[in-house]
Design goal:
The protein is of the alpha+beta class. It has one helix and ten strands; from the N terminus they run αββββββββββ.
């Protein structure tokens, strides 16, 4: 019987193959969680009625949904185009949100004018595919503001 000073390589090869297989399976299972079909679609924001939306004549207006985006109330004007106006008043709570923003579609309107305790002009970008949110700076309206007038003009 011949004896060799070296151990057999077969058990080490088997262990290396098992380790490689375990690493491949682990990375495959981890990669599956990052595939596009494994992600859930973002839930659409829930519409709220924090503010009443009226026309210049005081008649209620529809078609300008409101959403919460963290602690900012977003009034969606993305469907607005050309010229128009609306009046915002506190809703059933009688209070204004801490922050208000307007969602507009680039190119659909050129200038958004907000008149409350102070006047604020917000130019709207002409380029872009996604709607943008224009947030009012503090001081444009206060807790005692009876209404906020919003007017928009077309792109020139």
């Amino acid at each position: 019987m011949r004896r060799s000073g070296y151990r057999s390589l077969r058990p080490m090869l088997m262990a290396a193959a098992a380790l490689t297989l375990a690493l491949v399976l682990t990375s495959t299972l981890t990669a599956c969680s990052h595939m596009p079909w494994s992600k859930k679609a973002a839930a659409a924001p829930e519409a709220v009625n924090e503010l009443t939306v009226e026309g210049a004549d005081g008649s209620p207006l529809q078609g300008y949904p409101q959403y919460w985006k963290r602690n900012t109330l977003v009034v969606d004007l993305s469907g607005a185009s050309g010229s128009g106006s609306l009046v915002l008043k506190p809703g059933a709570s009688g209070k204004w949100p801490v922050r208000v923003a307007f969602r507009v579609a680039p190119g659909s309107i050129g200038l958004l004018e907000v008149q409350a305790d102070q006047r604020m002009l917000l130019p709207v970008a002409r380029e872009g595919a996604k709607p943008i949110d224009l947030e009012l700076v503090p001081g444009v309206y206060t807790a005692g503001t009876p209404q906020v007038r919003v007017r928009w003009e077309p792109t020139r």
